[in-house]
Fold:
Amino acid sequence: MYSAAITNGILSEEKVSQLVHEALADPKLDGQRILVLIPDGTRSAPIPQMFRLLHKELSERAVSLDFLIALGTHNPMSEEQINRLVGVTPEERETTFKKVRIFNHLWNEPDTFISCGVISASEIGEISNGMLYQPVEVRINKLVTEYDLIVVCSPVFPHEVVGFSGGNKYFFPGISGLEVINLSHWLGALITCYEIIGTPGITPVRRLINRAASLIPTPKLCLAMVVAPKTNQLAGLYIEKPEEAWEAASQLSAKLHIKYVDKPFKQVLSVMPKMYDDIWTAAKGMYKLEPVVADGGELIIYAPHISEFSYTHGKILAEVGYHVRDYFLKQWDKFQGYPGGVLAHSTHLKGMGTFDPKKGEQARIRVTLATGISPERCAAHNLNYCDPATIRPTEWANRENEGILLVPKAGEILYRLK
Structure:
């Protein structure tokens, strides 16, 4: 493995360049068709740096060097957004990088997929520790079969569905069909976000996506990046096959991206950056803080710029609303027809709790939206509302001894009790 890491600092550009150069020096890469998977704009990572390094190392040697944005089910990015993502000007796209193609993953267009096979119900039962027994077809963006090497360029953070993001997650859900997306997310919801987020090692969901990725015939290489907190620079870079690179990166992420506090807070204000443009993505402000909210406490997602629950799944969310896991499980006949990925998101934002047919739903904490979404729509989705105009985040600062926590840039650092 080619790797370097600094626990309390950042890797120099020279060191990162050296690592990438050494890892890609193999003459076997000459004359190959290479596809690079990269995150969209909802992830912090020095993608401009990596884009230029990969281009420098491979553009003159490879027959083709292209990039595919692993959107999952997020919205396609515009040309302007893509240029910003990879850090180039429109002029550079037309000159220096004119041979490079950058694709959006088109998750809702069936013709863009191929099937890699089926994972049987019995194997799913084994992978999920008996929580699910159903076969799943493994469909993936067919571009992966049109290249000789797939390079996964992925940041690694604590993650609400799989434990830690990155690695083969850039195939599933990054560029996969809805079958594995829905199954893997619902499996994570059954375990609960509270239990799985930031869990080291191979979680059941990680086992599932690793198994699905093993069905992709194209060779793979992974640049697993660990971003230093409060920066967009690397504290660690690991280059190897996806499983090995991800595992090493997740160990560093556990040291850098999990913050431990002494006691829970009665109120938490999660201030969401502009890179999260709907609740589907901004819900990370809940996932990453839920463990430090006291029983009966409140978590407020503060994002005046957000006006939609989900640009892609809003219609379904309007039908099901936001509920604790057992609300769905104990009324499964009513909800089993809905996509597991949407139900999972619903439970992740609502958090832990119980449901009884007679007593109703009891959430462990209150989740409140201080966004551009109206009080009526919040209520219809089973969430609380706060007028964002009444909140001044600076007034929430330095009040930990009162049981109040301000998180100025929520979404990536996981908070846990010691």
User: Anything to note?
Assistant: The CA atoms of residues 154 and 395 lie 36 Å apart. DSSP finds 16 helices and 20 strands in the chain. The mean pLDDT is 95.
